[in-house]
Amino acid sequence: MTLKGWTLPLSATGRSSIVAPPPWHYSGEIIAVDFTAPVDAVAALLPRGLEPAPDGGASVVFADWCSASDHDERVLADPGVGQYHEAYIVLHALRGDKRVGRVPFIWVDSELSLLRGQIQGFPKKLGQIAMTRPVELGRGGVRKQAGARFAAHATSHGRRVLGVGVTLEGTAERLPRAATLPLVHTRLFPAIDRPEPAVQELQFGAIADFQCGTVHTGRATLELGQTEYEELAPLGPSAVGAGYVFSMAFSVTGGRVEPA
To answer: Which residues partner with 248 through β-bridges?
Structure first.
């Protein structure tokens, strides 16, 4: 019998595989905050070929995702599988004359998201993420309108690693860089029989059907935590910029790789 599956675990039918091949589809609610980090600290987290943006630009992003897969109908059908939260840092960088983003730290609360991200080169860890959820009715929540305050925080191993707050003041004319920078990842898989990695390459995702709703913006707060398992303190921040609340959707149809 031939075992099947795009990822482990393999089985007779392949239905036990954690991740099905792309395309993958994402629709989510986003809370993001821009900040300025020391340029040397940003440079220390970038791979060869990337340079920090001269202004030390960076962003923190929280996302409440719904996701689906063309090759596994269970992802959309089961909210326990396809819905999840994540929180991450995006460093604004340059690759030649092109602006790109690099995610050095990211936490998720989903097995599917963890492995799907690591396949792409996201350095995902498990964490716990909480976000303000916008509401349409009643007084039990907040709406996307001036004066509303949105907050989010992430913990890992019981320690708080990220926290943001955004008090909305109006709408933005431009999309936040955190939503539009093409990301450069490192796919890394260690070898078990030699010191050199079995796989070490840069990965550039193929994105389709990008959509962004009205971007609400306002003043923001940001906290970067520090634990014995994380290295966030060098990123500062030296200054906190604007915050954003918006809806976003896109599809990952594949990607391309280059030597790291």
So the answer is: 28, 212
Instruction: Kindly report, residue by residue over 211-255, the tens digit of the pLDDT.
Output: 999 999 999 999 999 899 999 999 999 999 999 999 999 999 999
Q: What is the rounded CA–CA span in Å between residue 134 and residue 67?
A: 19
Walk me through the domains of the chain, giving residue ranges and CATH numbers: 24-252 (2.40.400.10)
What's the pLDDT at 1?
74
20 DSSP 8-state letter: P
CA angle 218, 184, 178 (to 5 degrees): 5
Cα 241 to its chain centre, rounded Å, is 19
Report which residue type is found at 203. Answer: Q
Determine the Cα–Cα distance for residues 252 and 46; give it in Å rounded to an integer.
Answer: 23
Question: Which of these, 256, 236, 251, 232, lies nearest to 87 by C-alpha position?
Answer: 232
User: What one-character-per-residue DSSP string does 163-218 give?
Assistant: EEEEEEEEE-SS--HHHHSPBEEEEEE--SSSSS-SEEEEEEEEEEEEEE---EEE
In angstroms, rounded to a whole number, what is the distance separating the alpha carbons of residues 37 and 57?
Answer: 6
With residue 79 as reference, give the H or E element that holds it. Answer: helix 79-82
65-78 pLDDT tens trace: 999 999 999 999 99
Determine how many CB atoms are found less than 10 A away from the CB of residue 31: 23
What is the rounded distance in angstroms from the CA atom of residue 6 to the CA atom of residue 15? 10
